[in-house]
Amino acid sequence: MSDLDEIVQLVTIAGERHIHPDFSTYVDDVDMADIRKLYEDMVVVRRLDAEATALQRQGQLGLWAPLLGQEAAQIGSARALEADDFAFPSYREHAVAYCRGVQLKELMPFWRGTSLSGWDPNKYNMATPAIIIGAQTLHAAGYGMGVNFDGANSAVITYFGDGATSQGDVAEAMGFAASFAAPVVFFCQNNQWAISEPVTLQTKAQISHRGHGYGMPTVRVDGNDVLAVLAVTRAALELAREGGGPTFIEAVTYRRGPHTTSDDPTRYRTAEDEAEWIRRDPIERIRLLLESAGALSEGDVKAIGDHADAAAAELRRGCLELEDPPAMSIFDDAYAEPHSLIDAERREYAAYLDTLDA
Amino acid sequence: MSAAAPARVPLGKAVNAGLRKALADDDKVILMGEDIGKLGGVFRITDGLQAEFGDKRVIDTPLAESGIIGTAVGLAFRGYRPVCEIQFDGFIYPAFDQIVSQVAKLHHRTAGAVKMPITIRVPFGGGIGAVEHHSESPEGYFAATAGLRVVSCSNAADAYTMIQQAIASDDPVLFFEPKRRYWEKGEADFAALDAAEAYPLHKARVVRPGTDVTLLVYGPLVTTGLQAAKVAAEEGRSIEVVDLRSISPLDMDTIADSVRRTGRLVIAHEAPVFMGVGAEIAARVSTECFYHLEAPIRRVGGFAIPYPPAKLEQHFLPDVDRILDAVDHTFTD
Ligand SMILES: Cc1ncc(C[n+]2csc(CCOP(=O)(O)OP(=O)(O)O)c2C)c(N)n1
Predict the structure, then answer these.
(1) Number of neighbouring beta carbons within 10 Å of residue A288
(2) What pLDDT, in 10s, does the model give residues A45-100?
(3) Cβ contact A269:A48 at 8 Å
(4) Which cofactors must be present for this protein to function (chain A) (predicted)?
(5) For B63, which of A166, A212, B124, B164 could close a Cys bridge (C-beta 3.0–4.6 Å)?
(6) Does the beta-carbon distance from A349 to B304 stay under 8 Å?
(7) A129 CB less than 6 Å from ligand 1?
(8) Residues A217, A308: one domain?
(9) Residue A278 touches chain B, beta carbons under 8 Å
(10) Domain housing A339
């Protein structure tokens, strides 16, 4: 694949198309209507993210991890997936979940604290949020090994941050995936920060070099360019399906909001830095591209805005409709089969709750 | 001595003051962890310390728990006294291998030639409405590992002195901080508190005398235990509340002494009861105090389930009612 340090870009921040010798062909079939779809996806998930952040501020969610600024990295990569591919995310991949078809109301229970999950991973071929940094990359490697053992030709993608690349688990995942030629795309969203720690604290080299050390092809892509992300992810997935093993993608992007709604980024980064990345906004450049091609009418903008508002309303409704689960449900699903200790504790706690009612 | 009442400070601020004192007293003390520098830690417990002592003493580490503890081992070899912050209880497991296989064993393995004066600070426990992995009580795993000392503070004055005592210890200490009590204020006169003279790190303390039943608690549940004792007193029952403070080693003298006086024992902790810290204490008390016990020992704690989602955590965490229910049982069993 491409040179280690080169950054793949297909659309400039001014909305102009670039030809890339290796990757443009992967999006040859993508016409203006498709690009408008990608634009719509990004507008909708940005709106959803804002709504969820507002819900947290209003006390309806315990926490939220905003994805503002990372729309292109998530939409571009997730729209490259086939239905039978499997995604192992961290906790910020709401846009990926959206693309996988996860119901909006299913995004909320985890953050509202009514459930530890929210959706059935097998239904959408996407695991629920992984909080332990990097853990999911090993699961992806193992899933990919299973795909190979089955002789199947689906692929796996795992999402993680720049900070996660410091974890042993991520190193081990890359080792396994490379050694067993597992069909895994390691998709690192280098959003420049791990809470307060800059990416330079995690590595002196470029993040993309991490994969190179394990003998896998690596690509560094402009993570705010949805078309470029789509192209490089398609290329990596295709290589994986053809038995070419894992690829490491570094999507260079920026987390524009706080790490989570509990974070205070003013303590560690500058307004200039933030302003610079507003300039590189992933949605704006696609808007410019579409407009200059005459592919975005005022009517389109209005329709997309309405769609986004409707989605946000649905998200809010889904959140507010979530009731606290019944107390005794805490004993459900700790084990798949009956367990005498759980049975005893369930009985005892039920009896205790009865005494409170009495 | 001034006659003014000692200042009331939040527990978290007391840990901060204790760390500041330890850094000032010994230049071999260094702090390391994720986000502890500019941000001051996600709970702000290290707030201002990097600005004061520089980034060679207060070190933001890469995002790697095994790395934090493993490099602390190397620093200890080199004569440093690392104080590592694990951001949340549930994130200690990536470092578990280094802690139990290396930190705990190196002194023994080297026949005493190498010391591991490493303090591992862990904000632990639930009750803050967090997402998964942010509310756990893993102290039992570490107490089950020989070579480690395990303590938990419950109030501002103890937090200030105990953290300094932990850092001064030549053994590795797991220092569990009750995160939901970080903002709870207590009396702590830092100018008057001297860690070397203070109540010993490994002694339990009777925090409220009583005559009818002993309630043994530590960390976040000390406050809950004191509330329970207050309610019980209104109903005419006298609970003696003992703050365990040290989980390993156990101060069996203070515990047994209390149980011999009251004849009854309830142990409460947030970690699951099954195979937990309370089980060990109950077994020892039943051996040492068998003929003084008026009733079976009762334990109150988490269930044998993964920590539940935030909206259900009140069922998992021992509260005043569940503690009093257990107390009642010791009179009716
Ligand atoms: C093992 C572990 N250690 C620490 C944390 C606390 N934590 C949550 S997110 C985070 C920063 C992650 O940064 P990065 O991997 O770059 O991903 P980003 O959040 O920027 O997307 C930290 C330290 C955790 N969840 N798991």
Answers:
(1) 17
(2) 999 999 999 999 999 999 999 999 999 999 999 999 999 999 999 999 999 999 99
(3) no
(4) thiamine diphosphate
(5) A166
(6) no
(7) no
(8) yes
(9) no
(10) 327-357
